């Protein structure tokens, strides 16, 4: 057995430490790192199943020009030449990079340096624009620097935790477990502010289902109420905060409890309860994410939260802070190097002295002197032909930007598109002239910064496969080929890390808290052995001194913008977000059979009252339409939705589905300060889509021909792939997806059922089951047959084992336990609580990510779940 390697999780901004023990060239055993401060050994369902995603299935392993494999020299020369030619002809602002919080800090640093110091443009933006740029803008306005003034330890020390626009139980599960532990150990209260009742609300004392987009009203209302009760901290305000003239007078108008409750459409009694709890609990952490940031008023929403903390002195103390939690593994590292178009480098903006300072430090020939285009504007500029060469790294904008159909048109139009990715087939890669194979998690080497400023190493535990190369290497090779040999002569990530650390310290003079001077001369061995450490200390503003010129924080006056009432053609409001067991565009989580079955299809969640009006039933297909585009989803009824609101997930792409394309739907409208798109509220309508037949397709080998029908969604299953299909007309064309082999068939004309199995050397190679009126056989049983070695025609028997009931949607990914099994056990064994389910079935006893779901199932039992489990 080889030695365990300590690294950091590939997924979310919690930044859990992982202990990875290779068991073969491409196999690994994954455990939580007991010594890592973020998780102390725990991992959620996604982290736990990382080992299932490190095989080479679907990887891009060679540089490609069009569909042709080429050597690195040829590909790099072409990229360097096309960028240099475009710049020579049309100037530096005619090219752009679009990068990602999934790059390592070292990769990010090199990309930022090349664009801003050498090409001489600031047209480098990142998917973090879609993620936390409103938090960055809010921090800068309030603190004078982009500092998250909290750490996870504050969650352990808080008496009240307020989650605003955060589905923590699904998106930051280990933080959620820490919150639950604090509740158990010290009775910490938990309030969730979210229009949807998510699984995060299962463990909460109070859920405020506010009307989408009314967070400013809520926070202002609370602050006005605190002020009226004399509960603001005047001493703290006088000593450490600059308050604009008339701030309190203005706040006193129109923010009484009743008006606030009316604006937010929540009962005044619930607000009263929340306000009193807030007043009584000075140790408050307000943790927020996309429900706050992804709004056309996101920056104001961030400042409304920070105002509340500043005015009550709940900042810079144990258990008291506004806490913007980040999404991607290295969203924070990107902010630290300055990889947004609106920042320069190392927490410096484009003030002329900063431009001069960074220029001196890099010995840069052509410094960018003004901010570049932010993501949405950048792609608009590409569509308008103003940007003529684009390099996309570690992000999938054809899926994840708002109004994705326009983004695809822009990519189509762009004369030169380079995509660096780890996967061969992505929706964005389909538009690339050149595709470059990047090193993946487990091969990459460098650092990441998590939500609480803790910097950890990502270490490789597998060799680079075939031609794959680290992103920093790819970028520096292009830079050198563009003529900047010595400025990009990096040999290893440690060289880049030292330069980044030196820049944060260079002529800093205490102006910026981000100062990694201690690391400026770190040796290669010390870099290799680096332990997780937090920059900026535990409580950055403990002394009440901020990064503004006068060292005072700012109260920023913010007013609630009117929330547009639903218009006739668009009676619904579309909210979008995430599932527990999938990550973004599924390029990694989609490889795991265990993660795949928590949600097999993209659902549109609808309140039962709306469904009734629209004539929709659970399991129907329905089309969501907005002014930007439309897509089909499977209907799920949920009384956790507010009437009038619907929710769809962001994960499905051309690679996995014909429907479920959430990216086509949101408006490209952005927050005026941050440029972050308002992904969470888009006017929409919903209508039923009728289909004549439905069924599924199971295949052992990856398919060549994708099922081309109205509805076809793919999930990975043990030993193959499962497609759910539905459509109209003759389904015979689906047989084109089946492999060659011995054909077994069973047709039931009365029910319109067609069952076809293909058997190759006694093993099941593919099954197609389609019916017009009849019931479908068990998918789980048939999937199990992929592993059997003596399959015969009986596999299609209309009776027999093929008709066993399915396990239902996977609830516990670790032990593969489905909803139907849990409901049956609750009913038969009279289980009363989550530990009892654990004892009976094992569910919830490993990573714990499903515990909120188990609690929800218990709450709903018996009737609703028994109905839903049919
Ligand atoms: N499983 C999983 N985890 C992930 C990811 C993933 O893809 N999958 N991605 C990671 C990334 S990059 C990110 S950014 C984070 C995102 O983590 P979260 O922000 O927790 O996730 P979302 O589902 O995008 O949205 C959060 C909630 O905001 C609510 N919301 C919508 N509108 C409003 C509003 O007007 N006000 C309020 N108060 N709330 C509102 C939504 O109903 C939703 O429940 O997750 C990270 N973790
Ligand atoms: N409607 C709606 N849209 C949203 C959101 C929403 O809530 N609603 N959320 C937004 C948010 S917060 C985010 S963060 C984005 C995420 O959206 P994206 O960034 O587009 O999603 P990913 O699937 O993470 O894309 C990462 C790509 O990089 C590749 N990759 C992974 N690791 C590496 C690497 O080390 N190097 C290279 N070169 N490539 C790599 C992966 O294979 C994948 O193709 O989506 C945004 N879009
Ligand atoms: S919470 Fe889960 S996904 Fe996030 S870093 Fe930890 S193990 Fe990874
Ligand atoms: Mo994100």
TrEMBL record:
Record flagged with keyword Oxidoreductase: yes
Gene Ontology MF terms in the entry? 4 iron, 4 sulfur cluster binding; metal ion binding; molybdopterin cofactor binding; oxidoreductase activity
| Catalytic class of the enzyme | oxidoreductase
CDD domains per the record? MopB_CT_Nitrate-R-NapA-like, MopB_Nitrate-R-NapA-like
The protein's required cofactor(s) are namely: [4Fe-4S] cluster; Mo-bis(molybdopterin guanine dinucleotide)
Annotated coiled-coil segments of the chain? none
Q: Which residues form the 4Fe-4S Mo/W bis-MGD-type domain?
A: 2-58
User: Under the cellular component aspect of Gene Ontology, which terms does the record hold?
Assistant: membrane; oxidoreductase complex
What are the entry keywords? 4Fe-4S, Iron, Iron-sulfur, Metal-binding, Molybdenum, Nitrate assimilation, Oxidoreductase
Quote the EC number.
1.7.99.4
- Keyword Ribosomal protein attributed: no
Query: Gene3D superfamilies annotated for this entry?
Result: 2.40.40.20, 3.40.50.740, ADC-like domains, BFD-like [2Fe-2S]-binding domain, Dimethylsulfoxide Reductase, domain 2
Tell me, what's a Pfam family for it? Molydop_binding
Q: Name one GO biological process term.
A: nitrate assimilation
So what family is this one in? Belongs to the prokaryotic molybdopterin-containing oxidoreductase family. NasA/NapA/NarB subfamily.
> What protein am I looking at?
Assimilatory nitrate reductase catalytic subunit
Species assigned in the record: Novosphingobium fluoreni
